[in-house]
Amino acid sequence: MSVPQFVPHNTTETTLPVADAATVRREAFALVRGDRTAMTMVVLLYCCAAASGMVAPRLLGTMINDFQAGRPTSRVDQLALVIGVAAVLQLVLNRFARYAGQRMGERALRRLRDQFVARVLELPTSLVERAGTGDLLARSTGDVAVIGTTFREALPQVLISVAQIVFVVIAVALLDPLLGLVSLVGLPVVLAVTRWYLRRARSAYLAEGEANTALAGSLAATVDGSGTVEALGLRDARIEASESVAEHTVATRLRTLHLRNVLYPVVDFGQALPVALALVVGGLLYQHGALSLGVLVAAALYLLQLVAPVETILIWVEQLQRGGASFARLAGVGQVPAEPVALADTPADDRIEATGVHYTYDGGRPALRGVDLVVRPGERLAVVGPSGAGKTTLARLLSGVEAPTEGTVTVGGVPLVALPTADRCRRIVAVTQEHHVFMGTLRDNLTIATDEADDEALSAALASVGADWVDSLPDGLDTPVGAYGTGLDAARAQQLALARVVLADPHTVLLDEATAMLDPRTARRTERALAATLVGRGVIAVAHRLHTAHDADRIVVLREGRITETGTHDELVALGGSYAALWNSWHG
Ligand SMILES: Nc1ncnc2c1ncn2[C@@H]1O[C@H](COP(=O)(O)OP(=O)(O)OP(=O)(O)O)[C@@H](O)[C@H]1O
Predict the structure, then answer these.
(1) Hydrolase: present as a keyword of the record (predicted)?
(2) Which residues have CB under 6 Å of ligand 1?
(3) ipTM of this predicted complex?
(4) Helix/strand/coil (H, E, C) string of 387-416?
(5) Which numbered atom of ligand 1 lies nearest the CA of 395?
(6) CATH number for domain 21-333, candidates 3.40.190.10, 3.30.700.20, 3.30.70.120, 1.20.1560.10
């Protein structure tokens, strides 16, 4: 018996949930119900194909009886012809059934994929960040591929096999009820061991998938950080870490191997049992004249027909398991509580207020400890402080990406995290150094921010950030950009991102390292574009370079998660505190 190639799950440690078995069942049925007519058609075709397969043994039995009774050979020819026609019919019906099944599977897969993408887009940003792109990518690629194989191959194969088994049992029972009963003796054995296997396999394969991902991740981390490993002499530590992950992977593989090693031999026994028993019982009945030779041969041939579908089911049962586990991971994304979709209240104004804000990362020390801060509409606020003081954390909370562990952050009196993402992003936009260019046209990349803008508004937004290079593009706004289109360098990509901000027209822009990592030439161009973007808006800037702070309306100094100083540049310099010390040391 051949075992299908193991396709590893690219699972990873994650904060994204995995759906339980009941949810998987419910969602899988809902998916199939969405294509009910096709499903009925496929089942009908499989049943007709299975029924055609019942013709040959029955007629062979009749032939034998005819021979014994000395009937004319012309009847044998007719029977042989019918057997031939039935065999061809079975072949054709099977072919159509598989084709229809695969098409149905493709449609179901498409619906599933659309559903998944829609759910991912609704996920809270903070959760996506915590889960990391790896997990979502693994679910949308690896898991979708596994489900694809399950729908295209496993389900049709299993369906046809189940139909064959049901028809064989019915056919034998029609020949002789006692032999019909005998044909079922293997069933409890096969069902029991399959049940035993299925109960354990889901968690075992999930564990194996997770271990594989952890191993790949550990090796990739070692390769990616090879310079650091070399420089800090971490070789032995990395080898040790990889070995322990590898050992765990082997243990999980041994577990799934053990499951297969129990399953296959027991099933083989369960298959052989009815054939052997039918020959014994049928032989006795024949000896006592209770059964004709033709019926005995037909029954034995039918029972032999059980072997192939049972094996097919076993070959694909693992794939079904994997499909189930992958489905659970896709469905799990739908179990994340959606972000609020309706506004509870409309913010009264553009004032952003943090009150008694504490924030602690999972298992870490508090990053913010009781921050009170009001950002007035249109104010340019700089947040400064030593590394690890909590600047980025405060910025994330003020942009609403993350909720405070304690306290509130509101805009116009409404908690930021209660606002639907789209609404929040129309009010406050964070500009980072990440400037992704989406696959599509330049226009597509701009209208992500707002679908209300016409070409004139798009061009104006690009012009405002100094993106004059657009005029030299072959198709202007219709030029494809992104992975397969015209490449945009870092500065252009950042200008595109800033043009999006201009189009989104938020009242406040949050800047955290927007230009810190760019090379000086690119940074200069980007800073000019940035300055244009910020005109007329409030700005909260995490200031890594103090000249940003110098130009701000107000500066807050953070130390160990607390605001220690607040004031204008001149006031803080005059105060002679930690800002003055920072300024003096920076200014020389
Ligand atoms: N994802 C995270 N998980 C756990 N702890 C974190 C995480 N991000 C930050 N921290 C911790 O929270 C504290 C505040 O970090 P934060 O990045 O907000 O400081 P920062 O002032 O922006 O520092 P820097 O200027 O170095 O970026 C630090 O002690 C940091 O180690």
Answers:
(1) no
(2) 361, 364, 367, 385, 387-393
(3) 0.96
(4) CCCCHHHHHHHHHCCCCCCEEEEEECCEEH
(5) 18
(6) 1.20.1560.10
Tokens representing residue 393 in the block = 């954390």
Please write down the HEC assignment for all residues of 166-224.
HHHHHHHHHHCHHHHHHCCCHHHHHHHHHHHHHHHHHHHHHHHHHHHHHHHHHHHHHHH
Which residue owns the Cα nearest ligand 1 atom 13? 367
Distance of CA 392 from the midpoint of ligand 1 (Å): 7
Residue 567 has pLDDT above 50, yes or no: yes
Sheet of 366-375, strands arranged across:
366-375, 352-360, 406-411, 414-415
**CA 216 to ligand 1 centroid distance, Å:** 27
* Span from the CA of 363 to the centroid of ligand 1 (angstroms): 13
Nearest atom (ligand 1) to Cα of 513? 27
Q: Kindly report the pTM of this predicted structure.
A: 0.58
Mean pLDDT of the chain: 83
Residue limits of CATH 1.20.1560.10 in the chain: 21-333
| Annotation: CATH topology of 352-587 | Rossmann fold (3.40.50)
What is the distance in A from the centroid of ligand 1 to the CA of 14?
Answer: 20
CA distance 242 to 56: 58
List, by residue range, all CATH 3.40.50.300 domains of the chain.
Answer: 352-587
Higher per-residue pLDDT: 102 or 487: 102
Residue with tokens 């449609």: 107
